[in-house]
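Morning run. Coffee first, then this:
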Amino acid sequence: MTDYQPPLAELYVIGPSSTGKTTLCNAVARSMKLPAWCYITEVARQVMRTQGYTRADVGTMEMQKAIMMAQLEKETQACLRAGRTNKSLILSDRSGIDPIVYAVLTAKDELEARHKKSVLVGEPTFQRALHRYRKARFLLLNAVPEWLVDDGVRSLEQHERCIVVFREVLTELGISFYEMGGEMKDLSERVEWVKEILTDPASPRL
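And here it is:
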């Protein structure tokens, strides 16, 4: 008789900048006492630092592809290790979807946006990850206006556009997702809601 292994749950916390993704992920990881390797911290900054990219490179396919590939490699390794150690949760601060969204957002026109998205989505490594993503849980964080670090109305508009593109890409790829609205600001409340959706797939979207 083989030992029972619980099904692996993957949770990807995504959304525009300054929406509290890392703060929430850190709090969830602490609350659930996750081993460090079960928690994939933000990859983009690591890639920028180690490969010499700057903010000026955000619109380049090279940078977004490098981030996507590094993220997917982290996910693959975490999932493989989870299978060997009977762990049932992988938590990730962002996902392989994020570089696709930012490639679209930084495109000069719709034609370039479609091309960039097609190239990244067509990567064999991403296609393999897509099978996992369609079974995983994605949590899309909306902007909390008073948390935004940029200036005024323009910043809020940029965040709203980013949210729209996230929704479009996720829907187009057949990935279901939850949304957490800006009205939920208390961190402990956010953590408890995340734990609820991990145990109850019928939880409502916020």
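The chain has a mean pLDDT of 89. Good start to the day.
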